[in-house]
Design goal:
Shape: flat
Strand content: under 5%
Structural class: mainly alpha
Strand order of the largest sheet: 1-2
Largest sheet: 2 strands, antiparallel
Number of strands: 2
């Protein structure tokens, strides 16, 4: 009976989770299938777009990698990836530099108004980029940062720091105050207690901030599109649609490949730190 109950439980889980997994995985499947097709395969109305059905049924003899090679040989795709990593890495560092002490101060030192201030900071994150675009574009122009990665490094923390501060504030509240008090009694200063006690325990929340902030930098389009005009300075979110959509010509296979390739390391990163990522997001939910 116990074995039958276990089978029913697993079957019920798969019946519930299975459809969601299929729906979420379908765009990646479609990108993978499309990137290996010839142009004739896309425009042939007898072909089903959701499966690989070339003129010849042998996949290895009919699939082509020329569209993948196109983005590496005839576009600045490697440069876009490098620019994205540079901008994302610097912005994540700036975010942690400001969000960690701010989140701790609001959680521990701000008293009763700390929660209200934290909510206010989070509301800044909810302001649409289209409203912030005009003042930020004026700032970028005044500092003469147009068409440079420095403009993105300056602007991106405006939406990563508020969310990271709110997230870390909730996570710091879950850490028992007694641990810090014990460290202070043992002779540690406030900063030393943070470095040796609070921050190591807060690793799930910090990893969540790192992953989420970097993902925001990768996916951001409005600022990357408007502040950067030259192809060699673009990030991947703006470079792919600008260079692979030329007038009414869509390089569909290359678009699919250029979108799928960066999503693979991000998916692996999320999967590697999934447990800590969930713990970091839900750490302050029950306080």
């Amino acid at each position: 009976m116990e074995a039958l109950r276990l089978v029913r439980r697993k079957l019920g889980t798969y019946l519930v989770v299975g459809p969601f997994a299929i729906v979420l995985a379908f765009p990646f499947y479609w990108m993978l299938v499309t990137m290996f097709k010839e142009d004739l395969d896309l425009y042939n109305q007898q072909h089903v777009p959701y499966i690989y059905n070339p003129l010849r049924w042998d996949f290895w003899s009919s699939a082509t990698t020329k569209h993948v090679a196109f983005i590496f040989e005839h576009t600045n795709y490697p440069t876009w990836i490098a620019n994205t990593v540079i901008v994302g890495g610097i912005v994540v560092g700036i975010t942690l530099l400001f969000a960690m002490p701010a989140g701790y101060a609001l959680a521990r030192l701000a008293g009763r108004w700390g929660q209200s201030a934290g909510v206010g900071i989070f509301l800044v994150y909810l302001v649409p980029p289209t409203l912030l675009f005009l003042p930020l574009s004026r700032l970028v122009a005044e500092l003469d940062l147009q068409d440079s990665l420095a403009s993105l490094i300056l602007v991106y923390p405006s939406f990563t720091i508020p969310f990271a501060t709110w997230l870390l504030m909730g996570f710091f509240k879950t850490i028992p105050q007694e641990l810090e008090d014990a460290a202070l009694v043992d002779g540690c200063s406030r900063l030393k207690a943070l470095r040796r006690v609070v921050f190591p325990i807060s690793l799930p929340g910090i990893l969540t901030v790192i992953i989420f902030s970097f993902s925001l930098c990768v996916n951001e389009f409005i600022y990357a599109f408007t502040f950067i005009s030259s192809s060699e300075h673009r990030t991947i979110s703006a470079g792919v649609p600008n260079d692979l959509i030329r007038g009414d010509v869509f390089f569909w296979q290359s678009l699919m490949a250029a979108t799928l390739i960066p999503s693979i390391p991000l998916a692996l990163l999320y999967n590697t730190f999934l447990d800590r990522f969930i713990k970091g997001f839900t750490g302050g939910a029950f306080r």
